[in-house]
Design goal:
mainly beta; seven-stranded mixed β-sheet; four-stranded antiparallel β-sheet
């Protein structure tokens, strides 16, 4: 199983970034995919989640209206479009996959990608 994030970097306040997470080794379309983030000295928090099937989405209040999560099941990839970025969005962003296989709950994580919002 692999989850490989990309797209992080340094951006000025008000700017945009698009994160990607390429998945392999599990039935991607059946899994709930999420983005979490962890800032220095803080706990990891859920940013956005997209369900399998109809792709229902949920967002943390702090990113609603600015971030958009989406998935392409043909490419086994989940995206996070981040607009109007703020310094408080600075964190390591992690891709997460949750699902059930062979009657067991599975939970996979990527290695993370750094997002820094600073002028």
């Amino acid at each position: 199983v692999q989850l490989v994030e990309s797209g992080g970097g340094l951006v000025q306040p008000g700017g945009s970034l698009r994160l990607s997470c390429a998945a392999s080794g599990f039935p991607f379309s059946t899994y709930v995919m999420s983005w979490f983030r962890q800032a220095p000295g803080k706990e990891r928090e859920l940013v956005a989640r997209i369900a399998s099937g109809r792709g229902t989405t949920n967002y943390a209040d702090s990113v609603k209206g600015r971030f958009t999560i989406s998935r392409d099941n043909t490419k086994n990839t989940v995206y996070l479009q981040m607009n109007s970025l703020k310094p408080e969005d600075t964190a390591v962003y992690y891709c997460n996959a949750q699902g059930v296989e062979l009657f067991r709950r599975r939970d996979y994580w990527g290695q993370g990608t750094q997002v820094t919002v600073s002028s």
